[in-house]
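Milestone 3.1: sequence recovery, worked example.
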């Protein structure tokens, strides 16, 4: 099948108004958001999007995820590195604000994840966030979003790489599948119940602050850490692109994710902070007594490695899709074992991991790399853009009823929230990182450092 025939099968030629055409049944954009939890569209998803069309051209079928497999992938996308920074959030802003922040951001993130499905239902050809941004506002925004997506996924890999560096420094004392992240966290909690935190002095007193009065920098970076923990929405459209039936199975998968993630975040953040008080570290594993921290990090290494590979695969797959479709003009070979497809994959993989290495060394502090990533990208990808997607779907009807007015106010609020977190968050995260570099007691004097970051 030729590339032109491939695109005809996909049904994504641009119409005169710049919006993509499709022979697939569409839903009414003015009522899409009112059909909460209902199946709007009876499309056979296995033939939709670039992967469905590639399979139709003779390649392997990648749209194979059912409800439970999709839920596992969503959990792996969401519940990972970000959870290790949550106990320090409680330290900065207090126990009660920390719990409220997780509940509030978790609730908002449930809605924004659902909006992703509404947008896919209206435009079933989209396979990733840049595709959705192209529908929203054209090629310029899609290109900006594509670059941002690659950088943010690279930062996610960098945070995993940095956490592995912390783990190795802890295991060696700074000398030259998955059990998951939950067993190490359980080890930390249990060890803190019977022994003092690693950085606490002898005779220490546990002090828990219910309501803290943080500085602007500390408060904002704490909020950014919570947002980062719910930042997996950037990849949810990619996951939908590999589901057999997103219409029926995405919502149950999302419910499974949130029913697992929100309680896990509350327990982890609250329990470790409650047991360690002001002596929590970030990543949180370093809070445990040294022997238990080494055991936990030893178990965690495999998960950190898998997490880095997971986000790396997502970033490389997006680059591969763009290059095969728009540079090499061979989208029909995307899921085939050809010389062209393998050469493109190997070159892009090499480029991607070089970028990850540079970013991991440019921002060598775990909390800072999370704050920068959250401010630059998560603020928009997980909150601001979903608000814009809902408004795009319901622009003419956003003030047609009390319910629609409430949802419109929520969506406008998400857009404003994205802009505010982005601008103020960049200032707070970079300023705190500069202060850290200038602090002689921090032990981290700048990027590309060889300093010990095992307990920080």
């Amino acid at each position: 099948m030729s590339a032109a025939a491939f695109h005809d099968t996909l049904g994504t030629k641009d119409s005169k108004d710049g919006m993509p055409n499709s022979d697939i049944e569409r839903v009414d954009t003015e009522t899409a958001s009112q059909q909460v939890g209902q199946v709007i569209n009876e499309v056979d998803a296995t033939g939709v999007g670039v992967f469905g069309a590639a399979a139709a051209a003779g390649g392997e079928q990648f749209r194979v995820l059912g409800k439970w497999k999709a839920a596992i992938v969503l959990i792996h996308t969401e519940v990972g590195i970000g959870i290790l920074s949550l106990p320090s959030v409680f330290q900065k802003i207090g126990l009660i604000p920390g719990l409220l922040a997780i509940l509030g951001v978790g609730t908002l993130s449930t809605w924004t994840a659902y909006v992703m499905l509404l947008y896919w239902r209206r435009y079933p050809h989209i396979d990733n966030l840049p595709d959705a941004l192209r529908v929203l506002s054209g090629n310029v925004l899609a290109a900006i979003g594509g670059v941002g997506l690659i950088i943010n996924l690279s930062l996610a890999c960098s945070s995993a790489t940095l956490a592995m560096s912390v783990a190795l420094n802890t295991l060696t004392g700074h000398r030259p599948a998955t059990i998951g992240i939950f067993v190490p966290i359980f080890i930390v909690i249990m060890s803190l119940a019977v022994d003092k935190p690693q950085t606490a002095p002898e005779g220490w007193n546990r002090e828990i602050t219910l309501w803290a009065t943080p500085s602007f920098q500390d408060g904002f970076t704490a909020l950014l850490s919570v947002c980062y923990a719910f930042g997996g929405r950037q990849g949810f459209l990619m996951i939908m692109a590999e589901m057999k039936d997103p219409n029926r199975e995405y919502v149950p998968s999302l419910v499974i994710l949130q029913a697992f993630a929100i309680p896990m975040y509350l327990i982890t953040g609250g329990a470790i902070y409650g047991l360690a008080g002001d002596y929590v570290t970030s990543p949180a594993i370093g809070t445990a007594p040294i022997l238990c921290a080494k055991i936990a990090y030893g178990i965690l290494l495999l998960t950190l490695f898998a997490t880095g590979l997971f986000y790396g695969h997502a970033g490389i797959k997006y680059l591969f899709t763009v290059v095969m479709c728009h540079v090499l003009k061979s989208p029909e070979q995307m899921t085939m074992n050809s010389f062209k497809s393998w050469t493109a994959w190997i070159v892009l993989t090499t480029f991607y991991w070089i970028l990850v290495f540079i970013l991991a060394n440019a921002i060598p502090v775990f909390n800072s790399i999370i704050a920068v990533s959250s401010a630059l990208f998560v603020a928009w990808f997980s909150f601001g853009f979903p608000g814009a997607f809902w408004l795009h779907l319901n622009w003419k009807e956003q003030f047609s009823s009390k319910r629609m007015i409430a949802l419109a106010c929520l969506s406008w609020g998400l857009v404003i929230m994205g802009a505010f977190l982005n601008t103020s968050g960049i200032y707070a995260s970079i300023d705190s990182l500069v202060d850290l570099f200038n602090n002689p007691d921090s032990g981290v004097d700048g990027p590309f450092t060889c300093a010990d970051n095992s307990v920080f």
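Confidence is low (pLDDT under 50) at residues 1-40. The chain has one domain: 45-199+209-438.
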